[in-house]
Write a structure and sequence with these properties.
There is one protein chain. The chain is mostly helical and about 150 residues long. The chain has one domain. About 50% of the residues lie in helices and about 5% in strands. It has four helices and four strands. The protein has a two-stranded parallel ribbon with strand order 1-2. It has a two-stranded antiparallel sheet with strand order 3-4. Helix 1 crosses helix 3 and helix 1 packs across helix 4.
């Protein structure tokens, strides 16, 4: 499977950019996939909020060559993981909840003036369906009809 970037509903579906299924008439398996994509995207967005708050260096462009900038970002991610291990994650969960409240009020629309847009290929659909099957495997999380999460 390729590495992917979790996107939101307004994102185009690409082999490298996954978006959740449309909210209308979701099967249970599609709901699980969409839930997992949402959680992954929230984690990524949270990190992009936490990193610049901890290291002001990331508030602007890193003015160095690409290789050195990549090493700087990798070191910062490693340091963040060490800090989380030492301090715990309580602070970071509250930041994540606050970010999700802000994001919820600024949701992008995917359907403009009744038109639906097709932004995906057969390959992208195959990748998404493969992840859907994987997410619904033997140790998967499923959603009940009232959208509560249950572990198998």
């Amino acid at each position: 499977m390729p590495f992917i970037i979790p996107g939101d509903e307004a994102s185009p579906l690409k082999t490298y950019l996954m978006k959740p299924f449309a909210r209308k008439d979701l099967s249970c398996e599609e709901g699980v996939f969409s839930y997992r994509m949402l959680r992954a995207r929230q984690c990524v967005e949270c990190v992009f909020g936490i990193l610049p708050a901890r290291w002001r260096l990331l508030d602007k462009a890193i003015e160095t060559n690409t290789n050195k900038a990549e090493r700087i970002v990798r070191c910062i991610c490693l340091l963040l993981n060490i800090i989380i291990d030492l301090e715990g994650t309580t602070h970071y969960h509250s930041v994540l909840q606050e970010n999700s409240k802000i994001r919820g009020s600024h949701q992008a629309k995917t359907n403009v003036s009744g038109r639906s847009f097709i932004w995906f290929s057969k390959g992208a659909i195959d990748v998404r369906n493969t992840f859907k099957v994987y997410f619904n495997g033997p140790t998967a999380v499923t959603l009940s009809p009232n959208r509560k999460v249950y572990l198998h």
